[in-house]
Amino acid sequence: MIQIENSYLSINVNPKGAELQSIYCKDTNLEYLWSGDPDFWGKKSPVLFPIVGGLKNDSYQYNGTTYQLGRHGFARDMEFQLTSNLKESISFNLQANEATQKAYPFLFSFTISYTINKNKLSCTYQITNVDLKPMFFSFGAHPAFKVPLEVNLAFDDYQLIFSNNETAQQWPLTSDGLIKREAIDFFKDNNTIDLNKNLFHGDALVFKELESTSISLSSNKSKHGFKFEYNNFPYMGIWSTKNADFVCIEPWCGVADYEDTKGDIEQKEGINILLPGEMISRTWSVEVY
Prior knowledge:
mainly beta
């Protein structure tokens, strides 16, 4: 486990998956990240790469060949190399190798960096195509935040407040985690989701092209919460497993397969394309209080 800290925050990161393990605020004496209780969900903040969500039959086609790839890809289960360890920032890197190429036939360099500034943590994903051919991929974040933050409160004492009023549909998921073709109404010129555990009994709430660039967790029974900021992530998932005390805020550059997909990765919705030598970078951040 690697730790960095300042006068306000202490964070821990596991090189396996370069996965965030703790966001502890010294001012509030609160932990903001989910505990990773395996009775509910053993992860805390996995990275999603080279796909987001599930593939139909856990497979896709590229250049006439079928490849097997499980939900959310392989990066979250792989050992990243520590490449920089400074007082208030830390970076990890994953390179394509023989094992990754069996499931994903592209050469890549994937760097995840964490930076703290006062009471704000930023996480940056930087993906570079080091292959001689175009690279097709998706990626995203999956941080799970502790709800309730304080022992005297309950999950449904909290709400998620989006920075903009939204008029947007929710895209339901099948039991296999694939996206249904028929969306349902959700936001109707409003910006708030009142949390309750029944919201997630049918899996994640999936949205496309929201106007908001931040989501805040707050409660009218507490002065503590956080503001989660993101930009240039065209998809958003909000999720918790059944009856667990956390909520995931998941900005994505990519999305699960549709239930009627043909499986060609080059035609997949939400796929990103990098030409040889090109790089893409996206950042999310959370400011705690």
